[in-house]
From TrEMBL:
<dbReference type="Pfam" id="PF02567">
    <property type="entry name" value="PhzC-PhzF"/>
</dbReference>
<protein>
    <submittedName>
        <fullName>Uncharacterized protein</fullName>
    </submittedName>
</protein>
<dbReference type="GO" id="GO:0003824">
    <property type="term" value="F:catalytic activity"/>
</dbReference>
<dbReference type="InterPro" id="IPR003719">
    <property type="entry name" value="Phenazine_PhzF-like"/>
</dbReference>
Amino acid sequence: MKVHLIRVFRKGCNGHNIIGVVYSPKLNFSTMEMKKIAHNSKLDKVVFVTKSTKANIRLRFFTPDKEYTICFVSMFAAIHLLTNIEKDNYKAKFVSIETSLTVFKIDVMRTAFRTRDCQLIQAANAAFIAEKKPYWVNKNRKFNGYEQGKFLLEMPDTFATKPMLARHLLETMLVDIRDIDTLFYEFSKILGTPKFRMQIRYNDETVENFFISLYIQDIAAGRMIHLESMSKIIPAIDVPYH
């Protein structure tokens, strides 16, 4: 079984993740087969792109030991691969992705390459080599009164010119350094299963690097989570599963 490999560098995480993506929309793997592929791959995370009766595709997330409800770093990897394999389906259009948590309705928009993306490449490459924390992690002892150990999900440009903006706005963009998937799952348990609006902005104007900005909005609560990643496809591997 061919397992595509995507190296993903994501905001708020140290170093990088190599994610396995199994593109199998025409195959019907059993859960046991998926677990076996994930285990035999010797990768930390594997995501399966499968058929869905509720959405365009279904994503199932596995580690060598178990299946997870949601894993955003794996979702980034799957989206990267899909925009390469199914380019015509991911050009400024609406798609839906089923997960065990909920069906995500997504607006897909291709954006122009930005100067900030060049800076991200440089910072990410340095982190890959040195295994240091990403440059956007809060390294200051205090940031506007917040303790070290928080990271920014997003820094609006207005903060550069208006640093005294309402404190609650900044609070919505600072989270503890725990895995965002865990935070999101806990958030969803509190609210039940709300309807989410997701938006993907991506550009692929560089040959090697692919950028995704993911906006997750809980319509009922009026909360927004913004995640960013840089990813790169690396040579695939063959994994036995019989």
